[in-house]
Design brief:
Elements lengths: L1 H40 L4 H40 L7 H23 L3 H14 L2 E2 L2 E2 L14
Antiparallel strand pairs: 1-2
Pfam families: 7tm_1 (PF00001)
Main location: membrane
Subcellular location: Cell membrane
Length: 154
């Protein structure tokens, strides 16, 4: 339990989340500042304004992902801290199980969320899923066993 509280929570999770929030906040501030600066430079340059807007949206999405991860992972670690520092403290076991489920859901969703932002990984996942479902990009491939005696598809 000492390892879980001191090394994992305080050393890894809390420290990395603080650094992550600081970096994402810095990115958002720079993006917003640049966007405001361009707002007064030239209103006719729509392409440049669109480019800055996209950067702002990307930075906002990163912050939302960071906050969601923190919300999912922190409760179980707080329960670990409570269990370690206050051995006589009681808490509802069902709530504890929900925090475990929440942290596992976060772990399941992270690869999907972060991979969906990369176009090459997205394309590879699409090919993998289509291959697993026997679907070609042109349409559905019907896979029939040799014992099938029905009507063949055209």
């Amino acid at each position: 339990m000492e390892h879980m509280v001191y090394l994992q929570f305080f050393g890894i999770i809390l420290t990395s989340n603080i650094i992550m929030f600081a970096v994402y906040t810095y990115i958002c501030q720079k993006t917003l500042y640049a966007n405001r600066r361009n707002e007064f430079a030239s209103q006719t340059d729509i392409k440049r304004a669109t480019k800055w807007y996209r950067k702002e949206v990307k930075a906002s999405k990163l912050i939302v992902l960071a906050v969601a991860q923190f919300i999912c992972i922190t409760p179980i670690n707080i329960f670990n801290c409570i269990s370690f520092f206050c051995r006589t403290c009681k808490y509802p076991y069902a709530v504890f199980l929900c925090t475990i489920l929440l942290s596992h859901c976060n772990s399941c969703m992270n690869p999907i969320l972060y991979a969906s932002r990369n176009s090459r990984i997205k394309a590879a996942m699409k090919r993998l899923v289509l291959s697993a479902l026997n679907i070609s990009p042109e349409g559905v491939q019907l896979v029939m066993s040799s014992s099938y005696t029905g009507v063949t598809p055209n």
